[in-house]
Every structure is written in structure tokens, then in C-alpha cells.
Amino acid sequence: MLVQIGQLLVDVVASFFVFLLLARFHFQWLRVPFRNPVGEFIIAGSNWIVRPARKVIPPLAGLDLATLLAALLLQALALYLLGALAGGGLGNEPGRMIAVLLVGAAFDLARYSLYILIFAVIVQAVLSWVNQHSPVQPLFDAMTRPFLRPLRRVIPVLGNVDLSPLVLLVLLQIALIALAHLRGAAGGLF
């Protein structure tokens, strides 16, 4: 029972901060404005780890590598702690185990990124039906526009209904399935 409680706490706390870091990374990558309640929350919740990391890790081609690397290392640490609580450890080959943790964490970051995009598409679609003038509407529009724009060029509007968010959600689900299979295959390599 205590192991399960410990695993739950590690998973919840680590996932919360990893999602914050990934959201911050994606906001910067997609040039989503931070001057809104969601952006301010993300900055306030992740500055404690991003500011020190930026002193050591410079950006590359406009990408905030410090934030992405912090998310990767935090997720790898969470995977290690979850394994340690289950009775595992680094074993006899710590280098191999660290590589396994980093690869697993990278797959988790890709999966979490897809979850963030799925959430943004759903919220953006609901807001477009319910409250088009919501203060967070521009934020979700900026997050989803680069992914919806190519689909909108191909998929016609039917009866004033834009089906591109639905198609994007299906494509994202397919990507999640493919990612799960890739992770399984990569797990067999280690």
C-alpha cells in the first residue's frame, strides 16, 4: 500500500512539472503569448527550474533547450523513482539503465506533447462553439493553428462546421498508437 501511495505521489508531482515544462517549451516554439492567465501560471510554476538551467544550456535555433532538457531529466528521474519504489534500481549495468531511462523519458515527452496538443484542440474547438471571445481563445488558437492550417487547406467546411479539428484529433490518436509501438520496439533493444 505504501509503495502504491509513493508511486502515485511521484507520478503526480513529476507529471505536473513535466507538463508545465513541456507547455512552456511548446509555447515558446509556437510563439504563443505568455501574457494570459495560463501563460503566467506556466511561467510561475516552471521558473524555479528553467532559470538555473538557462545559465548552463543555451537556446538552439530559437528552441529553449534548457526547458526541454529539464523536462527530459525530470521525467527520467521520475521513471527511476517509480522503478526504485517497485524494487528495482540501476542494477549491474548503470550506464545501460540510464540510457533506458532517458529513452523512456524521451518517449514520454513525445506522448505528453501529443496530449497537450489534443487538449488544446479540444479546448479550442469547444471555445469556438461556446465563447469565441474568451480571453484564452487566442492562446489555444496560436497553439493549434500550425497543425490545423494544412488540414484546413484540404478539408472543406461542411455546413459552416470546420471538421479539421476532428481530423487532427484522429491523426494525433494514430500518432499515439504508433508511438506506443515504437516505445515497445525500443524497449526490446535495451
Number of domains: 1
Using only C-alpha atoms, the radius of gyration works out to: 19 Å
Shape: globular
Low-confidence sequence ranges: none
Structural class category: mainly alpha
Total of helices: 6
Biggest sheet features: none
**Mean pLDDT across every amino acid position:** 90
- Element-by-element helix/strand order: HHHHHH
Distance between the termini: 30 Å
User: Would you report the number of β strands?
Assistant: 0
Residue fraction in strands: under 5%
Portion in helices: over 70%
Attribute tags:
single chain; 190 residues; mainly alpha; 6 helices
Helix and strand topology:
Blueprint: H1 2-29, H2 37-56, H3 65-85, H4 94-130, H5 137-154, H6 164-189
Task: Provide an overview of this structure.
- The protein has 190 residues and is mainly alpha-helical.
- The protein has one domain.
- The protein contains six helices and no strands.
- Helix 4 runs antiparallel to helix 6 (164-189).
- The model has no long low-confidence stretch (mean pLDDT 90).
Brief synopsis:
The protein is 79% helix and 0% strand. It is built from 6 helices and no strands.
